[in-house]
Amino acid sequence: MLAECLEVMDLAPGMTVIDGTLGAAGHSVSFGQAIAPGGRLVGLDRDEEILQHAERALRELQARCDGLQISLHHVSFAEMARILESEGLDGCDRVFLDLGVSSLQLDSIPRGFTFMHDAPLDMRMDRQSATTAEAWLRQVNRADLERVLRDYGGEKFARRIAGAIVEARRRHRIERTSQLVDIIAKALPAAARRQRIHFATRSFQAIRIAVNDELGMLERGLEAALRCLRPGGRLAVIAFHSAEDRICKRFLRERMDLPFRKPIVAGAAEVLRNPRARSARLRCGVKREVA
Ligand SMILES: C[S@@+](CC[C@H](N)C(=O)[O-])C[C@H]1O[C@@H](n2cnc3c(N)ncnc32)[C@H](O)[C@@H]1O
Q1: Total-model pTM
Q2: What confidence tens digit (pLDDT) does each residue in 218-229 have?
Q3: What is the CATH number of domain 2-103+214-286?
């Protein structure tokens, strides 16, 4: 949704932009071009490995763009106000958040984000954080596990799967993605294992969201973005998950002005190229001028 993002971001040379979810810097390369000459791009990501990918792409960009300043930080976007202050900036013009995991993370087998390959049950976006999926599954109580599977994964069989995980962990440690896939498979009725979408998709997504406290981070990130923006500044957020989108929708409606009435969704051609784009919702808010 690059074209749509550029439209809602409405960038101009000299602006200061925070990309809170830098990823491989696909969006940020375009943002950098639009705010040069001059301009300042502050890129954040919780994932240190991903930042290395971004750094390469952005170094090239900086060489091409006159006076563009770029800084990268390994930090959650919930910390953006502190980062801005540490750079001696009193505010920014745009904040961008493209939520969720990147394909680089999903494709990296040892990170344990996917049920497609056997790997340690890790799923941490920030490898310096203490709780892996394995540790989380060891400690979580059955009721919370069921709630996470249902609310973050939309899993109909949340109760059965939570029960099966609790039962299995009494007998042995659940340390690998393949063990979790087996437990889920055995908990489900046969028909549920034959759906178009892989039967472990929802549980893996739910556990990842819980392990990384993605919704808590989002709430704190939105507050931080509003604090960092100058009056008239814009916040643009892409959400893939309905719970994330609900949080954004409510926040923008209650706390900001809305330049677009409805969320922007990916066009048919993009969905064909990248089916994940089907559930993306892009929303934008403008910080109110102080009265
Ligand atoms: C969908 S990808 C972003 C892709 C990026 N827009 C691009 O063009 O390549 C999401 C990225 O946000 C990062 N991320 C997720 N939650 C975060 C948080 N709370 N703070 C900082 N980064 C976060 C992930 O590590 C991942 O690299």
Answers
A1: 0.96
A2: 999 999 999 999
A3: 3.40.50.150
